[in-house]
Amino acid sequence: MQKSKFRGSELEDILNSVSLGTRHLVAPLFVRDHRAKAVRRSLFPDFSSLSLEDTVFKVGQMMNLGISSVILFGVPSLRDSVGSDAANMSGIVQRTVRKLKEEFGEALTIITDVCLCQYNLSGQCGLKDSSGDAINNDNTIRYLSEIARTHAEAGADVVSPSSMMDGQVKTIRTLLDETGFRKIKIYPYSIKYASSLYSPFRSLAFSEQIMDHVHMDKSSYQVPFMNSRESIREIQNDILEGADMIIIKPAILYLDIISAVKERFQFPLAAQNVSGEYAMIKSAGSLNWIDEHAWIISAICSMKRAGADLIISYFWKDIAAILNS
Ligand SMILES: [Zn+2]
After folding, report:
1. Rg, Å, the chain Cα set
2. Distance (Å, whole) CA 159 – CA 167
3. How much distance in Å is there from the Cα of 318 to the middle of ligand 1?
4. Domain range holding 225?
C-alpha cells in the first residue's frame, strides 16, 4: 500500500469526525478444509483462504491490532446437491470455531456465515425443490437452522444467515432457543443486493465444479438494487423475527439505504464492504491510479458516517494499522 498522503492531524480529524475505532471492525476470514480441492484462479487481490492453523494465527494477529470480532466463511472439501457438509459437526467451520474458542475464549467474538452456497453444487444459497429449478424456501430455512445450531454447539457467539430466505431468522431463533442456545445472537444479512460485486468472493470460495461463478442468477431471493421499499420490508421482518443486529451489503453503493434504515429503525446495523469493493480499490491502488490509502479511509468513514455500527471489511488490517498509527 502507498504511504499516506494525509498529515497526521488531518487523518486524526477525519477519524474523529466519524468516531471510528478498531471496536467497529469485523474481520472476514475464509477457512479452507485441508481436503478441499484447489480453487479456481483467485480474482481476489492479496487475499486467500486459510488453513485452520493459519486462521488461528491470523486471528491472533487481528486481536493484537485491537480487533476482537471475526466472521468465518467455510470452504469445505465436500460439495453435493444438498449442501450436507454445512451441518457437519466435524465440518471446517465447526472445527475452526471450537479451536478459536479454545485459544481465545470470551475475548474473541465469533460470527459464522450460515448459508449453503459454498456447500452445494449449484452455488445457490438454498436447496432446490423437486423440480430442480426453483429454490424451496421452507426446506432451506429448516436446514439453515440446523447449520446454525451446529455452529452454536461448536461455540459461535453469533450466527449470520446470509441466504435471504423468508422466515430464516424466526426459524433459526426458534431452534436455537429450543436447543439451549438462547444467548447466541443472530445478525442476518437482511439486505443483500443482487450485485456483480461478489465475484472475487465467489472466485475464492467456490470450487471449480461451479463453472460460471460470475453470472449466477440469485435474483429470486436477493434484493434488486433499484428497489428501496422492499429493502425496508426485509429489515422490518428480520427485526420482528428476532434479529439482534442487521447487516446490509454491499456498502459503498448503498450508503443511502444504510442511512435511511438507521434513521428509520434506530436498530444496530452492520455494513459489509464486499469483495468487489475491496478488489476495485486494491487493483486501482496497485496501478497508482488512485491513492489507495486515502480511498480506504474515505470508504470506511463513509459507511460509519452513514450509520453503520459495525463494518465488516477485507481492509481490516489496513484500517487497524491506520487507526493504531
Ligand atoms: Zn449464500
Report:
1. 19
2. 15
3. 26
4. 8-324
pLDDT in tens, 26-48: 999 999 987 766 555 667 777 88
Share of the chain above pLDDT 90, in %: 63
Higher pLDDT: 90 or 223? It is 90
3-class state of residue 166 by DSSP? coil
Q: Which three cell numbers stand for residue 232?
A: 425496508
Q: What is the CATH number of the domain that holds 99?
A: 3.20.20.70
Is 249 assigned a catalytic role? yes
Residue 2 domain-assigned (yes or no): no
Report how far ligand 1's centroid is from the alpha carbon of 96 (Å): 19
Q: Establish if 1 belongs to a structural domain.
A: no
User: 319-324: which pairs have CB atoms within 8 A and are 24 or more residues apart?
Assistant: 319/20, 319/22, 319/25, 320/22, 320/25, 320/62, 320/65, 320/66, 320/67, 321/65, 322/4, 322/11, 322/15, 322/293, 322/296, 322/297, 323/15, 323/20, 323/21, 323/22, 323/66, 324/22, 324/65, 324/66
Distant-in-sequence, close-in-space partners of 27: CB < 8 Å, separation ≥ 6:
58, 59, 62, 67, 69, 70, 71, 312, 313, 316, 317
Supply φ then ψ for residue 232, to 5 degrees.
-60, -40
Residue 322 CA, ligand 1 centroid: distance in Å: 32
